[in-house]
Amino acid sequence: MNFLLINFFLISLLLVTTFFIFKTTSLISVVALTGAFTLLCSAIYVNLDAVDVAFTEAAVGSGISTILMVMAAAKLPEGKKNKLLNLFPSIILAVAISLILIIIIANLPLLGDPNAPIHLHVVPEYLKESKDFFHIPNVVTNILASYRGFDTLGETIVIFTAGLGVIALLTSNTLNRKTNFKKNKKNER
Amino acid sequence: MRDKISSSPVLSVVSKILFAPIIIFGLYVQFHGDYGPGGGFQAGVIVAAAFILYSMIFGLSKGETLVPIMINRYLMCIGVLLYAGVGIVSIFLDGMYLDYNVLSSDPSTGQHIGIILVELGVGITVATVMIALYHSFASFGEINE
Question: What is the ipTM of this complex?
Answer without folding.
Answer: 0.88
